[in-house]
Structures are given as C-alpha cells and as structure tokens.
Task: inverse folding
C-alpha cells in the first residue's frame, strides 16, 4: 500500500478509537473501554476495515479490538468506524506476536483471521497466522471454549490450517471450501467481496479451544564418547 502523506493528521482525527498503550491494558479492556460488553473479540489484520465496521455494527454489545501492522490501511478502517459513529471498536497498531503482552489469560472470547498473508514458501511457514507458534499464543489469551474464525481464498493455506490447528488443542467445525456457494454469507472483507465478484471460492472454518498440554520435547541423546587415541 502506498504511504499516505497525510497519515498523521488523519490518525489524529480518529484518536478516540486508537489504543496508544496496549501494554497497559491486560485484564482491563472491558473495564476501561466498554464495561457493559458481553464479549471481547479480536481481529488480526483488519486491513481497511470493511469487516471490522460490519461486525461492530451488527453486534453493538460486543467490544471489538482490531490489530493491524500497516498504519496506512488501519487509518482507513478507523475512519470508516468513526464515520459510522461506532463506540464498540478500537484499534491497535502492532504485530500478532504481541498479543500475550496486551491481553490477560482468558480475556478474549474470539479471534478473527481474515485473508491473512499465506506465506506460500515452506521456509516461511512459521509466519502464517495459523502456524502452531501463533496458535500457542492465541491459547494464552483465549478463554476455554473460545474460538478462532478463519477465512481465506488461498487453498494451500486452508489445507495447511485444517491439519495444523487441531494439533494445538482446537476442534474444527463449520469447515467449508465454498462459503458463498448459495449466496453471500455474513460480513465480508474488502478482499472477500472482490474475490466473490470474481467467482473465486472462499474457505472458512471455526476452531474451538479445548484443554490441551503441549507435548514434552524429546531429549536428544548425548553424543557418544570417543576413545582417546
């Protein structure tokens, strides 16, 4: 995305929905931002915010926190939500690996992963937001029974995720490889709407967190001693 010359003043005009110090928020998100919220949900990689705005409008009694690492995209999402007069959605500019520093254990009810970067190369697999390294981070902030809702147009990423996610203590449901086959379903992202218009199938699944213990790493055998010569 091209850098916006007027990014700073645009961000300042939407400052009311930007959380400047998320590291000070663990355990207090609802208390400080929306005490009456029945749930706290995260969206990782909100982009320009079409989905963010849509779900926040549809469920005004839910507190939404949108995390985005690209400010030039996030400012568009902030402007959309501000223009819509939404008071139940807030934004954080950060990487997903910071989540355990922002949220207390069990504080989050649901995480949305929409059209994440597929990182197709095997050597970049650990960067996929459905890789086990990230799934273990999500477990640190999700409540027991909390969900991950994942959508992507990328078939290889989806097949990878279908295999990877259950390995880290999640059960899968609502698995589909053509979400909109019988007409549009739910709130779409900007990418999703574009892909749907082009006739491309959208993959979706829901992963529910269940009790799980990480397997202990096997100890490597000590190198054999060599006889002195």
Result:
């Amino acid at each position: 995305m091209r850098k916006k010359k007027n990014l700073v003043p645009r961000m300042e005009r939407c400052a009311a929905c930007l959380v400047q110090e998320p590291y000070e928020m663990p355990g207090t998100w609802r208390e400080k931002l929306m005490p009456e919220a029945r749930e706290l949900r995260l969206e990782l990689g909100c982009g320009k915010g079409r989905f963010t705005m849509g779900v926040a409008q549809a469920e005004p009694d839910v507190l939404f926190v949108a995390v985005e690492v690209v400010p030039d995209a996030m400012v568009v999402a902030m402007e959309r939500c501000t223009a819509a007069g939404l008071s139940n959605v807030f934004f954080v500019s950060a990487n997903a690996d910071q989540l355990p520093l922002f949220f207390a254990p069990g504080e989050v009810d649901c995480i949305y992963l929409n059209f994440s970067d597929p990182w197709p190369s095997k050597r970049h697999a650990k960067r996929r937001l459905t890789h086990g390294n990230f799934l273990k981070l999500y477990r640190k902030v999700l409540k027991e029974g909390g969900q991950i809702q994942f959508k992507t147009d990328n078939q290889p990423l989806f097949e990878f995720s279908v295999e990877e996610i259950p390995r880290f203590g999640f059960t899968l449901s609502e698995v589909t490889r053509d979400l909109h086959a019988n007409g549009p379903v739910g709130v779409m992202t900007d990418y999703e709407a574009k892909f749907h218009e082009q006739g491309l199938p959208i993959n979706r699944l829901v992963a529910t967190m269940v009790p799980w213990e990480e397997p202990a790493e096997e100890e490597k055998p000590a190198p054999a001693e060599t006889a002195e010569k």
Notes: Residues 7-209 form a domain with the Rossmann fold fold (CATH 3.40.50.150). The CA atoms of residues 184 and 193 lie 9 Å apart. The mean pLDDT is 93. The first helix runs from residue 7 to 13.
